[in-house]
Amino acid sequence: MLWWQEKVFYQIYPLGFCGAERQNDFGAVRHRLNLIEDELPRLQDMGIGALLLNPLFQSAAHGYDTADFYNTDCRLGDNADLKRFVKRCHDCGIKVVLDGVFNHVGREFPQFKDVAEKKWDSPYKDWFHIDFNGNGAYNDGFYYEGWEGHYELVKLNLHNEAVRNFLFDAVRFYIDEFDIDGLRLDVCYGLPEDFIRDLSGVCKSKKDDFFLAAEAIHGDYNRLLNCGVDSVTNYECYKGLYSAINSKNLFEIEHSLSRQFANTPWSLYKGRHLLNFADNHDVPRLYSVLSDKRNAAAAYAILFAMPGIPCIYYGSEYAAEGVKGDGDVHLRPKMSDVDRNKNTELTDILKKLISLKNTRDSLKIGDYEKVTLNNEYFAIRRACGEEKTVLAVNISDNAVTVDTAGNVVDLIDGRNENGRAEVPPHSFRIFG
Question: In terms of pTM, does the model score above 0.90?
Answer without folding.
Answer: yes
